[in-house]
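From the shared-data thread, chain only:
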Amino acid sequence: MFPVKTIFLTFAFLATSLFSGTSLAQSGLYSPCIGAPVLPMPQKNVVVVGNVEQLYAAVLDLRENSTILIKPGRYRLASSTLGITADNVTIRGLEDNCDSVELVGPGMDNSQRKNVDNGFWISAKNTTIANLTISEVYFHSIQIDGSARSPRIYNVRMVNSGQQFIKANPREFGDGVNNGIVEYSIMEYTDGPSLTDHNGSGTGYTNGIDIHAGVGWRISNNRFRNFHTPDNADHLWNAAVLAWNGASDTITENNTFIDVDRAIVYGLKEKHFDHRGGVIRNNMVVMTPGLYSTKRTQSADATILAWDSPGTKILHNTVLTNGNLPNSIELRFESMNIEVSNNIVDAPIAHRDQKFFMSANNVDSAQADWFVNPVTGNLRLKKEVSEVLNKVRRHRLAQFDVDGENRPFGRKVDIGADEMQTNSNVQR
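Structure, as tokens:
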């Protein structure tokens, strides 16, 4: 058993932070930046802005193949969403961390939002958003129109969105935003999802990343925290990563999930097929003991789901449900060619419809004391555990571990997200 420190914001403190010079990042209420590799600095067609008026003007005048660099500071979005309509555009903080630039909306529960529905609305090709924080928006931190292609979200912290943090809309079933990338980013609630009903969608309606119908998304090296709705919310089973509505070939890898009601979901409804293919690998998922009530646990399913998602590979993940869920990984509906291998979990791996699926070399007896620091989501091995070390051959779709290190380090590959290197693991 281990405690997790939960941060509760009073309204007075939140109001003071939003409307003074002290950012929530500076106050320590946000998770620290992940430490993304530095992006090269653009050399051509660069506009540098230093206040919110300049930012709005630069976005309104966006040209193709250009970059907006934002100087450090807090930028209160008070008049409209930032709409990206020109192709091959980058909008990024001038510095290389995620917290020196903070774009602040009117509040995720503030219906008097003056057209600031979202942080960004993207309807262009090859848009990059990088090196900044987006907080307190009514609907979505980043909304992506179905006409867009190849968006990239890099080293961005998103905090307190009223609904989905990143939402990629479809044009129709199986036709959506393709080839999106989300890397080294943070999605989190400081005190849980909004319990305001946003335009009739119901309370607790949120996801970290909601991909409708998109092909070929890659979601790598991100952190998701505190996506847990209370028992009285209308929506109880939100996924931090959801790919569905005809999506396919999604890769979700090397991410950390802390206290999320569902971590990764490929497919949701029986639609022939709601999702196809893709890989879920090297992710670390942890839930606080006692997060769920008894009633909630009895009606729960699992934290990694492949429902109507044939061909999906679920490899080398590490999951500590700590008694909150009946299963760690669950399959449902069509499961042809689904493979579940080399995972460390503490709850069963199951198929709701009792169908056959490929399963090999999974360990379902995980204990918290096997890992470096479960409280922070660090489920790297801290000691040599005979059940998981040097047990399997390297899988062709999981040649590297959660840290990008080669498998194997020893004689054979370790089970779970981390390939243990004794001298380095405890320091992480």
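The chain has a mean pLDDT of 91.
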